[in-house]
Amino acid sequence: MAVDDSDGEITLGILNAVEDNSRLTQRSVAGELGIALGLANAYLKRCVRKGLVKVQQIPSNRYAYYLTPQGFAEKSRLTSEYLSSSFQFFRHARQQCEDLLQTCEAQGHKRLGLVGVTDLAEVLALAAMDTNVTLVGVADATVSIDRFAGMQVKADVAGLGALDALVVTTLKDPQAAYESARKSAPGIPVFHVPMLRISEELEAKAEDASAGARGGQR
User: Fold this and answer.
1) What is the pLDDT, as a whole number, of residue 215?
2) Under CATH, which architecture does the 90-217 domain have?
3) Strand partners of residue 151
4) Which of 19, 36, 79, 128 is least surrounded by Cβ atoms within 10 Å, i.e. has the fewest?
5) Model pTM?
């Protein structure tokens, strides 16, 4: 997600948490949203400062938080915005995944391995149901699950077995994932959808520079 999207998502998470539990703590908010305690504190204070949340001291030196009318309106706006962007992501991702799968089929790549357990991988799995392509599994060392979207999950590409091609589906540093996949599976092509903004030229330049360095050492 872009920085602005993350900002809105965290704010929405804060407002939802306040609505669900007026006696929440900053620590509980941080745990619920998966963010640092300091960040939860900063966002909660910002919501209070903007008039979205009202804070009131209660017994035992605790605080209660309540959504103001402005807070309810902002929560509604952010919810609509978040759902709109989510649907837009799905539409774009679905079309690009379908195009990619058609390319793979045309080139005879029937057994594909994915790199990254993400929403994009799930969209690709849905799109593949209408094709003759088989998604063998997903390689992702950052998760501790065995299955995802009906596919096996392994720590690395080698664990997926025989493949015709790889598809980068990670949303966190896809460029690095693409380059790593090229190195870990040099014998097979690595595909990616346009929305990931992966540059194949960077990889080519890096290979040229490496070759030049090796030549200079001879």
Assistant:
1) 55
2) 3-Layer(aba) Sandwich (3.40)
3) 148
4) 36
5) 0.66
